[in-house]
Amino acid sequence: MRLEKFGSTGRGVSVIGQGTWDLERADRKPAIAALQRGVELGMTHIDTAEYYGAGRVEEIVGEAIVDRREQVFLVSKVCPNHGTYAQTLKACEDSLKRLRTDRLDVYLLHWRGRADLVGVFKAFLDLQRQGKILHAGVSNFDVHDLEDMRAIEGGQAMVCNQVLYHLEERTIENAVLPWCIDHHLAVTAYSPFGHDRFPTPHSPHGKVLQAIADAHGATPRQVALQFLVHDPHVFAIPKASSVAHTEENAAAVDLRLTAEDFAWLEKTFPKPHLTTALPSL
Ligand SMILES: NC(=O)c1ccc[n+]([C@@H]2O[C@H](COP(=O)([O-])OP(=O)(O)OC[C@H]3O[C@@H](n4cnc5c(N)ncnc54)[C@H](OP(=O)(O)O)[C@@H]3O)[C@@H](O)[C@H]2O)c1
Fold first, then answer.
1. Could you give the number of structural domains in the chain?
2. 57 lies in a domain?
3. Residue 164 domain-assigned (yes or no)
4. In CATH, what number is assigned to the domain containing residue 65?
5. Which residues line ligand 1 (CB under 6 A)?
6. pTM score of the predicted model
7. Lower Cβ count inside 10 Å, N or C end of the chain?
8. For the range 266-269, what are the long-range contacts, defined as Cβ-Cβ under 8 Å and sequence gap of 24 or more?
9. Nearest atom, ligand 1, residue 77 CA
């Protein structure tokens, strides 16, 4: 697995990691086996949140990593409805318990909502001092949110912004991605397959992906992942609930797309001309 520096943390993190949203809906044993296989394959960046399955997903992740915590770069998120100083401290304690660990590698504010940013960032700083989180970051922050963030105590210490990014949704390339690169924030691409809207094999987009994949003995999903992570500032976190899907996703890192492939992808999945508001799921 390729590692890249995760923003200002200076730590090398797997460019393809593992998402966990909705994992509580999958069969538990194969879901845990998939996460463990992913770690074996170097997909050590695991993304979860208190929001997922109302805590049940963190419990699944906790079970999957309990005997391999040291290998994992563990990210969880506080919901903005816990977005006060005191509630963020409590939410973190609860996540740590469910994840069966004493620390998170990164703790994110899931989205801005009505969170009190001053209180949340103060809580992040205190959690960092206590060693309960090593770093903090944000998610779903547009450029104006990032500017607000920088003006608040603790805001300059944020190490990443986790945002919606896939071939059919390239809005971040116009403003959010350049801003994050300039300010040394890692960009984590969530829903790298478009959640449940990956192009079907017989659609025009699906046919292009298949043709590029065929030329490399690869799969359309591998092409989609490689398109994102060829940029060293971008970390993708596909979610998979089976070992077979995890193995396919991990192997995307070895795919070498040509300049012609990129040109075809650019033409088929153009980025928007105008900079619009940051979309989210
Ligand atoms: N910060 C935020 O607000 C936010 C929002 C959305 C997502 N996220 C994070 O980003 C992660 C990924 O996004 P996502 O879960 O929305 O969707 P996604 O990763 O874009 O797509 C997941 C879907 O793709 C399928 N899949 C995965 N690998 C596959 C393969 N090799 N072949 C065929 N199907 C495959 C999965 O099926 P199976 O489950 O059957 O394998 C699942 O249905 C989330 O899990 C979460 O951790 C964060």
1. 1
2. yes
3. yes
4. 3.20.20.100
5. 19-21, 26, 47, 110-111, 139-140, 162, 190-196, 221, 237-242, 245, 248-249, 280-281
6. 0.97
7. C
8. 268/204, 268/205, 268/208, 269/167, 269/168, 269/170, 269/205
9. 1
Q: 151 CA to middle of ligand 1, Å?
A: 33
Q: Tens digit of pLDDT for each residue in 258-274? A: 999 999 999 999 999 87
Tens digit of each residue's pLDDT (9 = 90 or more) over 62-75:
999 999 999 999 99
Strand partners, 236: 16, 189
C-alpha to C-alpha distance for 1 and 13, rounded to whole angstroms? 9
Res 275: pLDDT: 76
What are 23-57's pLDDT values in tens digits?
A: 999 999 999 999 999 999 999 999 999 999 999 99
**Tokens 């296989």 belong to residue:** 37
Distance between Cα 11 and ligand 1 center (Å): 24
280 part of a folded domain = no
Q: Which domain holds residue 88?
A: 3-268
In this prediction, residue 273 carries a pLDDT of: 83
Share of the chain above pLDDT 70, in %: 100
Measured from the CA of 249, which atom of ligand 1 is nearest?
Answer: 31
Substitution site in 16, 32, 190 for ligand 1 pocket (most atoms within 8 Å of beta carbon): 190
